[in-house]
Amino acid sequence: MENSSKKIAKVQMTSHALIIFSIVVIILYLGRSLIIPLIFGIILWLLMRKIRSLFYIIRLKDKWFPKWLKTLLSSAILFSLVWVIGFIFERNIQELIKYYDVYDAHFTSILKEFDSLSSYKTEDIIKSFSSNDLINKYITSVITSLQTIISNVIIVLIYMLFIILEESSFKDKVKAMFPQQDAYDERILVIRRIEKAITNYLGIKSLIALISSTIAYSIFTLIGLHAPFFWALLIFMFSFIPFFGVLISSFLPSIFAIIQFGGYSESLIILFSVGSIQFIAGNIIEPKVMGNTMNVSPIVVILSLGFWGFIWGLPGMFLSVPITVIMVIIFSKFRSTRGIAIILSEKGEIDH
């Protein structure tokens, strides 16, 4: 009798967990237009705090250089950087649109080269798979995704502004929620662990991505690829997508080079040079520099990439690793979810 009641309790617990999980997934999907900008706002706020901490390293004390002024200058630096990137990005998009007729002519000539290899006539190939289709379905889809992210920058910055305003009273609210000193210290420790893990990840990842994208920009400029900053920015952004980001950011500019130049030599140079840089950065340099900082299993990273990509699309792929790291840290603090944290971790070590 007792065993049957335990089985019933386990079944009920499992069913409740599945129901709660389904509700959470639905909320995440339906509320993505609000949740995604909020998460990016938090990330920008963390980056602002990292920039602000540099003022303390150079010994600018609050007595002569108050904290609010450090926050203002750090935010101004971050806002200016976002504005400059958005401005150059828009100019590069206009450059790509300006050469549309050239791309159309080159793509048509490339299709004619395959005329002898196909059972269809060249006219049928061009009609069924014109350059219009390629640009509209593939290149435009990438541009639209990136433009969607940039168009939400204003909302993200507004979220960040409100988070900055709430920052001064945050510890007081945590203290009110957990009046006992031990409980308060433990919550603050968890928050600091999350902040340190995310800032370390973003800092290391951004530095490596910046170096690789700068080298790629030089290669694009030497070859004469149109809108080199756009493709370098693409490489920088896709570096944050685990595993598949390297492949995507290497293939897209090389495919575009075929359309721009109407040949394959420039495309092969870009593919092998940029691909080699991305491979070295992602598989040799990054693991040595980052080490066990993230403490996330590789298979979990793949599954997380697929899950968050399915729920939130391209932004979800960018956020998949930080979200998984936060889940490991939070789940490790509760006995009921400690097993989940162990499964998500790289080697089952979650106490440090």
Quick structural overview:
The protein is mostly helical and 352 residues long.
Largest sheet: none
**Rg calculated over all Cα atoms:** 24 Å
Quantity of strands, as a count: 0
The stretches of 5 or more residues where confidence is low (pLDDT under 50) are none
**Cα distance spanning the termini:** 42 Å
Quickly give the structural class.
Answer: mainly alpha
The overall pLDDT, averaged over residues, is: 79
From the spread of the alpha carbons, the general shape counts as globular
Q: So how many helices? A: 14
Strand content: under 5%
Helix content: over 70%
What is the ordering of alpha helices and beta strands? HHHHHHHHHHHHHH
